[in-house]
Amino acid sequence: MTISAETTTDLTAVVLVGTLTPSPAPSSSEKLARQVLAALAGHGVTGTVVRLVDHDVRPGVQVDMGEGDAWPGIREQILAADILVVATPIWLGQPSSVTKRALERLDAELSEKDDQGRLLTYGKVAAVAVVGNEDGAHHVSAELFQALNDVGFSLAAGAVTYWVGAAMEGTDYQDLDETPETVATTTATLAANTVHLARLLAREQYPAT
Length: 209
Prior knowledge:
six-stranded mixed beta sheet, 21% strand, 209 residues, globular, alpha/beta, Rossmann fold
């Protein structure tokens, strides 16, 4: 993909992957997450992937939960980036437990403000990727949308891409021989709209409160 002439600001992204499977085992959530990152790269965005289960993210709703807590380092990457992507599997119709833990840790941002009274997450754009072999992609994305918006992130139109296999069958996204065209198209839309909004906010931040 050709980088748009609109690319006037270097943007960065962090992708939090909520798979329950530790590295180096393959993960459907990470596969879709990396496809989102590749689509963002087509618009001039550089980024990194963080598989949450590989890190000791402590339970809690504070910025730092003490010695050994890996969240402060992950948080530093999030605050340094323009775009946050959260990729999660569906388990029992819900986002994964590690994904929910990350959302709980982001709750601490409600107490963190800049010198003009804005949340530090204002001006940052979020997007979501969901995979599963059961129903629930819309429900899961709705939960993540609300949580991410609550803690200060903005979401563009079409801010989710997802794949859901046939219910009660064992095929995973990572088992597919090729990416379905509808998923690829939706991922491309997510990337284009997310970058567009991120560039707008990079040029003009939300007003002070």
